[in-house]
């Protein structure tokens, strides 16, 4: 017997009736049936009350009610991910509500948490990112850390974001965009490479762009490069020769 179930409410109703009127409850089936019927209705009402009480707090809400919390706070900018659990979605909503915004450390933290990899943030107007002429010796001496800056580009930044590592699938799946299984050199059979459909990621490119837009200060120019980890990113440095060098 649990609090609020039919047996519990029946027992409570029986306790309000004079004991001498009906004798032992096992020998009073008529009044027992009446009380059990009333208790069954009250048990349903109690369960509904407890359910809706739980939905009034984000941490105890469940199912689609969590989606309503997200819609109330963020509109349609923070939808539930496919197959995302309630606990994971609640944690993501709480983090988004309380996360820092509008600063460089905030942008670094948001993207690192989203992708699992620290981004590269370059501000052309920030000496710590660009260095200065002749500060060092060697190929990087013309601009310190080998990136040319400009005071004519205030409130601007270039951000290189690395996609999170995918999960699921099998070896070779990333190279075979097949609907189910890829058969290489063996028609009508299952090959040894899996499918991109079996792969899942914690953050899509759209999620990354949305996170940047939600964190960036207003009236800023942000350039974004989304790439896979380990893939060289095109750069302009002291080795670039106009008309000869290529960005690849």
Textual characterization of the structure:
It is rod-shaped, with a radius of gyration of 31 Å. The N and C termini lie far apart (71 Å). It has 248 residues and is mostly helical. 37% of the residues lie in helices and 8% in strands. It has 3 domains: 4-54; 59-97, no CATH class; 100-164 and 203-230, no CATH class. Keywords: Membrane, Transmembrane, Transmembrane helix.
Question: Topology, pairings included?
Answer:
Blueprint: H1 6-15, H2 19-22, H3 29-55, H4 64-74, H5 86-98, H6 104-115, E1 120-122, H7 127-130, E2 156-162, E3 167-168, E4 199-200, H8 205-215, E5 221-227
Parallel strand pairs: 2-5
Antiparallel strand pairs: 1-2, 3-4
Helix pairs in contact: 1-3, 4-5, 6-8
Mean pLDDT: 80
Helix count, DSSP H or I runs of 4 or more residues: 8
Q: How are strands sequenced across the largest beta sheet? A: 1-2-5
Termini gap: 71 Å
Secondary structure: number of strands = 5
Structural class: mainly alpha
Rounded radius of gyration (Å): 31 Å
Number of domains: 3
Give the overall shape, derived from the CA principal axes. rod-shaped
Helix content: 25-40%
Order of helices and strands: HHHHHHEHEEEHE
Quote the beta fraction: 5-15%
Low-confidence stretches: 171-192
**Biggest β-sheet strands, sense, barrel:** 3 strands, mixed
Keywords: Membrane, Transmembrane, Transmembrane helix
Transmembrane segments: 30-53
Name a few traits of the molecule:
248 residues; mainly alpha; 3 domains; three-stranded mixed β-sheet; two-stranded antiparallel sheet; 8 helices; 8% strand; rod-shaped; membrane
């Amino acid at each position: 017997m649990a609090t609020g179930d039919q047996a519990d409410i029946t027992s409570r109703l029986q306790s309000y009736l004079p004991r001498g009127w009906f004798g032992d409850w096992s020998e009073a089936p008529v009044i027992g049936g009446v009380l059990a019927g009333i208790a069954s209705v009250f048990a349903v009402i109690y369960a509904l009350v407890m359910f809706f009480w739980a939905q009034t707090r984000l941490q105890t809400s469940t199912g689609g009610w969590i989606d309503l919390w997200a819609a109330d706070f963020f509109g349609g900018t923070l939808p539930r991910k496919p197959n995302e659990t309630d606990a994971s979605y609640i944690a993501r909503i709480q983090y988004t509500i309380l996360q820092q915004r509008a600063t460089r450390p905030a942008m670094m933290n948001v993207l690192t948490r989203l992708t699992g990899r620290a981004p590269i943030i370059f501000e052309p107007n920030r000496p710590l990112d660009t260095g200065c002429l002749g500060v060092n010796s060697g190929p990087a001496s013309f601009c310190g850390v080998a990136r040319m800056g400009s005071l004519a580009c205030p409130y601007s930044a270039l951000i290189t974001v690395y996609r999170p590592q995918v999960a699921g699938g099998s070896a070779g799946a990333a190279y075979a965009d097949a609907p189910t299984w890829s058969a290489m050199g063996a028609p009508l059979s299952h090959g040894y490479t899996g499918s991109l459909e079996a792969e899942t990621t914690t953050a899509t490119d759209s999620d990354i762009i949305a996170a940047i837009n939600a964190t960036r200060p207003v009236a800023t120019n942000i350039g974004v490069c989304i790439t896979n980890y380990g893939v060289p990113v095109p750069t302009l440095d002291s080795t670039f020769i106009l008309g000869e060098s290529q960005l690849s």
